[in-house]
Design goal:
The protein is α+β, with helices and mostly antiparallel strands and 255 residues long. It has helices at 2-81, 85-120, 122-129, and strands at 133-141, 157-164, 173-182, 188-189, 195-197, 203-205, 208-214, 219-226, 236-243, 246-254. The longest helix has 80 residues, at 2-81. The relative contact order is 0.09.
């Protein structure tokens, strides 16, 4: 009898524990779902509140515009009814025209300022006022007269090549380009002492010149420079490219 009671007691305790565990899990799940629901509802409320605020703002803006239009219409109607249409309506319109004129003047002033800044910018001036020589390079040229002395022969010419960059703001036509070669001793190689002088008495001594037909697009140009024997030494040579007495490109040639 006592054993039976103990067995029933154990079973009852086990059932109570299982029920307690079940309801605990159920409560936790329900609590978690409820918290998620609260967070979702709060987020939705904030979204709805934001949308409502935006709608009210648009409505207020529209209301203000309608009020202004209504006042403007009432003002014109009063002017018409009072028989002062021709003079005062003209004045009313002139005020509006003045506002429009002022706005246009502000826009024009802004555009002028931007254009002035563009003109005074060194980078833009360089781009619009002068050609630009890109990819300047030079190669030595040997002229052999004796096959047995090929290794001893010095370079007698430089082949200088470059690209005149595309620029739609420069007029098309023949352009004279001057090549100036400066040896490692800072001596300008100028066979025949060639030089040009500008109207403002600026003198440019050059090594060779070349004319090319420039059509507002990338133009490849090559020319040969005759070297002076007494100025041809080992070292680094500076190759300068000029147009209209302005240096438009440069490179280094090592011999």
């Amino acid at each position: 009898m006592t054993r039976r009671k103990n067995k029933i007691t154990k079973i009852s305790i086990l059932i109570l524990m299982l029920l307690t565990l079940f309801f605990g899990v159920k409560y936790y799940k329900t609590s978690d779902d409820f918290n998620n629901y609260i967070e979702t509802s709060d987020l939705e409320n904030k979204v709805l509140e934001s949308q409502l605020t935006e709608i009210l703002h648009k409505y207020d803006s529209l209301s203000v515009k309608n009020k202004i239009d209504s006042l403007r219409f009432d003002e014109q109607l009063k002017l018409v009814q009072s028989g002062k249409t021709s003079k005062q309506v003209s004045r009313f319109n002139s005020i509006e025209d003045s506002i429009v004129f002022f706005a246009k003047q502000q826009q024009i002033s802004k555009e002028i300022t931007l254009k002035t800044n563009a003109i005074t910018s060194p980078k833009v001036v360089s781009k619009t006022a002068q050609l630009t020589a890109l990819n300047v390079n030079a190669k030595g040229v040997k002229i052999y007269s004796d096959a047995y002395k090929m290794s001893e022969a010095k370079i007698q010419q430089l082949r200088v090549c470059f690209t005149l960059e595309e620029n739609q703001l420069i007029n098309s036509g023949n352009k004279t380009i001057y090549v100036q070669v400066v040896n490692p001793k800072n001596q300008i190689i100028s066979s025949g002492d060639t030089s040009v002088e500008s109207d403002t008495n600026i003198k440019l001594q050059y090594s060779a010149s070349v004319s090319t037909n420039y059509q507002k697009k990338d133009t490849d140009v090559c020319t040969y420079v005759d070297l002076e024997k007494n100025k041809t030494i080992k070292g680094k040579y500076k190759i300068n490219i000029y147009h209209d007495f302005v240096k438009i490109g440069t490179a280094i040639f090592e011999y």
